[in-house]
Write a structure and sequence with these properties.
Oligomer: single chain
Strand order of the largest sheet: 1-2
Strand content: under 5%
Order of helices and strands: EEHHH
Distance between the termini: 111 Å
Largest sheet: 2 strands, antiparallel
Number of helices: 3
Amino acid sequence: MENEQVVVPQPPITAVCPQCHEPILPTYYFCPNCGKNLKEPPLSTSTAAQIGLYALSIIMPVICFLAINQWRGMKYMRSADPKAKQIGIIAAALMAVSTVLVVWVGIIWTEQLISSMTGGLMGAGNLGL
């Protein structure tokens, strides 16, 4: 019994990395040898991921779309996973509502500013200044 060798079965290698040509498993997202991205990992549908995406969708217009490449909503909407697709649609709707709200508030604020400026000038003209 002391001379028995334990044989650990190895999973079958069915692919090679396109960059370094090392054997890889089909389940790998990255090559363990060179780090090449082999395929996109699945999108997270966790509560934390949803909250982060939804929050960014709401504040995106406020930061003037400077971080549009940080918004992952399009990836979610294009996903084959129905839950991820639904998350993307909700995020896009939140961004659309937020954008309309920001534009509306901007228009109201601009009209009030113009009104207060022209009202002040008209009042000075009436005083004979």
